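check these tokens.
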Amino acid sequence: MWKQPWGYKEGYVICGGLFLTGLSLQAAVGGFHLETLAYPINLLAAVVFFLLLLLLHFFRRKFAALRWLSSYQAAISSISSLALLTLVMGLVKQLPGYMHEGDAWPGFAQMLSNWAFAFLFVWFIAVLGMTVFLRLFSAQWKDIPFVLNHLGLLIALTGAVLGSADIQQLEMNTLVGRPQWMATNERGDVLELPLAIELHEFSIEEYPPKLMLIDNETGDMLPKGKPDHFW
């Protein structure tokens, strides 16, 4: 292990090390607040990160480790490790960021604020970015579909995670004929919106319920073809 060229073992060891480091940091200081990456911090972080990847790309010929970052061994190990945590995120009920219960170790109830997920996500984006830069500067027409496909994935994933820091869920109570521009967030804070909403009309249509006979075995309404309704 750790003899060039690196393979799957080194890739999964790196992912495992990032995962354990994230869990240790989660236990020591708790999860980080995703709100700290709100605009313009998220945009600045993305620009600096990709500029750093671009700089590393130009040194890839001097360092074998940088060349390995654009290999399929690094890609498969990073994406499978991140996919495993994403599966855990889908199975574990996710709590809003303001609820401190989700911050308890290991912090899987707030996966986007989990250090282990953040480390593996950054590692995967780094591998994906180095792969895109490698094909982008190869100047071959056959690589254009590959570049567009992976570049779109890179932009979508980066934008989705970093952009989630700007998402706010607000609740607004409106009355007929009264403009409303104040809303309440999840923490109960009252916020002033840059727009106003006015309710002109509100109505509810009610229909009387109907009862009918249903065959428990087949689920058909009785009598079949022309069921009888009971008021």
